[in-house]
TrEMBL record:
This is N-acetyltransferase. Keywords: Transferase. CDD domains: NAT_SF. InterPro entries: Acyl_CoA_acyltransferase, GNAT_dom, MshD_Acetyltransferase. One of its GO terms (molecular function) is acyltransferase activity, transferring groups other than amino-acyl groups. Residues 6-176 form the N-acetyltransferase domain. The keyword Transferase applies. It comes from the Bacteria. Pfam families: Acetyltransf_1 (PF00583). It comes from Weissella viridescens.
Amino acid sequence: MSNMQFEIRKAVPTDLEKLQILALETFFESFSSGASVNDIQTYLQNEMTLTKLENEFHQPNTIFLIMIDKQTNNFIGYTKFNIVNEYWGIMANGLLEIERLYILSAFQSKGLGYKLIQEAVRFAESNAISQIVLSVYDKNPRGIKFYQKNEFNVVTEHSFMLGDDKRNCLVMLKQL
């Protein structure tokens, strides 16, 4: 990684407006390829509202971490993880689900996603959780390769609707 300096910290309520802007931008960067503008707009208007983000933020067993560029103080990435007992058929007494892990495209390929994965591993280990699960869009070869490089393996798949567009996702699991 270059000499870029960044900070990773747990999000606090006063971060939520900036976090929502980052979430909208990174979601659009990640999922707009091949989707209609209408499908993307509908999804973002329904699923990525500030109210919905606030509700997610206050859920027990949910943690948001934000990555901040120390030079500009801008949010450049974030992750959201949840402690769950079931995830797409995977059952365990405590799984760590990485529900979201996004880095702005301008900051990708700098080792920053790996740093967020390390934080998830650290959190899981400190909470006696031995498995981390996530879903990745099956048309995202870069994301799939990134997770495989970080010792995640495909175990099943599922789909979700992005407007009228059915998207398939791979469920990946990492044993700690």
